[in-house]
Amino acid sequence: MNHYKDRLEKIEDALYRTMPEKSSRNWIEKVAGDVSEGLDEPTADRFNAPGLELLGRGGKRWRPLVMVLMAEAAGGSEEVYRLTPLVELPHNGSLIVDDIEDKSEERRGGKSVHIIHGDDISINAGNLMYFLPSYLIDESSLAPEGKFRLYSAYSRAMRRLHFGQGMDIQWHNDHDYIPTEVEYLQMTRFKTGCLSSLAANLAVIEAGGSKELEKKAGQIWEDIGVGFQILDDVMNLKKGNPGKMRGDDIVEGKKSLPMILHCEAVPESIEPMKVLFEKAAGDDESAAVEAVAEAISMIEGSGSLEKAGIMGLEVLNKAKAELKELFPGKEAVRLMIEVVDGFIEKML
């Protein structure tokens, strides 16, 4: 990872300039306009605190890294670093809100942010992180047409992100409803693929690339985001995701791809699976643990966990090939593919 170090340090610097640990009058006026003395620095610091709590725990930062590498491949400039918070801050904001909606207790190896700071200020901070970095577009040196394209791509991604979250919420609140594979893939394109797609879109726009190139690059990285989510679903049931317990998706009532494939392959198990999901979400901790283990065993037994893993790899391998064709011979592409392969290795 040494060849990523300088890039990641510049990304980190951009994140904390956009959402500083200590606010200033200059920062407040940049993001909120002229507020005179009506909003002081300590107040701004308090409603930034939940977001900074999560940012401070790290995270992979692969979306802004992809944005930088895509800009390099497309012939962009160093200014792309200033724009990287447009993909990383909304991602972190979505995690804060997601944990409240899912009643999750852990995130990135610590207590979920809302447990520390409270639901109300955490919701506000999560929502702020969706929109806070938009002022970076105003400050960009791009011509008006370029700024319009940045705003258009960014706004579309925020809408898609919320559509995806809305679909996911409806499904895990209704244990009787089993989505189809097609519905799952659309939800994943909305919820997970949109920010990786946005990273590619913004990079191409910053580099002065055509709308056709923007669309193609965005589609490739949306596919990669979908592939990552499928493998993340698999890892959750195989060994657990970092900072979360194995089988958390079942406890939270999430309809992941392995579960959907299982219900399609063994329809007579749908009713027993619904019962297990109810028990997994119940107050009896011992019964919940047993229900999670039984549900995972059923999904593994039908071969659905393995099938989902194969599907995820197929999506990623196809996208990697398309990326090589889009920018043949580019070092930045080699590094992007290395990022993808690194995730595959960790997830499987």
UniProtKB/TrEMBL annotation:
Family the UniProt entry places it in: Belongs to the FPP/GGPP synthase family.
Enzyme Commission identifier(s): 2.5.1.90
Protein name: Octaprenyl-diphosphate synthase
Domain of life of the native organism: Bacteria
EC primary class: transferase
Entry-linked PANTHER family: GERANYLGERANYL PYROPHOSPHATE SYNTHASE (PTHR12001:SF44)
Entry keyword annotation includes Glycosyltransferase: no
Record has Magnesium as a keyword: yes
Annotated keywords: Magnesium, Metal-binding, Transferase
CDD domains with a match to the protein in the record: Trans_IPPS_HT
GO molecular function: all-trans-octaprenyl-diphosphate synthase activity; metal ion binding
GO terms (BP aspect): isoprenoid biosynthetic process
